Amino acid sequence: MSAKSDRVKGQAKQVAGILTRNKDLEARGKADRRAGEAKEKVGHAKDKVDEVIGKTQDTVEGLIDKAGASQHKK
Fold first, then answer.
1. Under a CB-based contact definition with an 8 Å cutoff, are residues 47 and 32 in contact?
2. Burial 14-48 (b: 16+ CB within 10 A, else e)
3. CB count, 10 Å around CB of 10?
4. What is the pLDDT along the chain (74 residues), one digit of tens a residue?
5. What whole-number distance in Å separates Cα of residue 15 and Cα of residue 41?
6. Is 21 left (phi over 0), alpha (psi -120 to 50) or beta?
7. Which residue among 4, 9, 52, 64 has the highest number of C-beta atoms inside a 10 angstrom radius?
8. For the whole model, what pTM was predicted?
C-alpha cells in the first residue's frame, strides 16, 4: 500500500473509532495514519537525497571534463 493510502485508511479508522467510541479502533487508526505519514516523510527525504546525488554527479562530471580539456590544451 502507498503511504498516502495508509494515511487515509488510518484517518478513516480513527474517525470510525471516535464515532463508535471504540478506543481500540481509534488507536489502530491513529497508528496507521502515523505510519503513513512516516512513509511519506521517508519518501520525500529519499527524493531529496536522489536530487543531491544527481547534482553532485553532474558537478563531478563537469569538473572531470574541464580537467581533461585543460590537459589537451598543453
1. no
2. beebeeeeeeebbebbbebbebbeebeeeeeeeee
3. 20
4. 788 898 999 999 999 999 999 999 999 999 999 999 999 999 999 999 999 999 999 999 999 988 887 776 65
5. 23
6. left
7. 9
8. 0.67
Q: Residue 28, SS3?
A: helix
Which residue is associated with the grid cell 521517508? 42
What is the DSSP track for 30-50? HHHHHHHHHHHHHHHHHHHHH
AA identity, residue 48: K
Q: Which amino acid is at 13?
A: K
Residue pair 31/40 in contact (Cβ under 8 Å)? The answer is no
Residue 17 near residue 29, CB atoms below 8 Å = yes
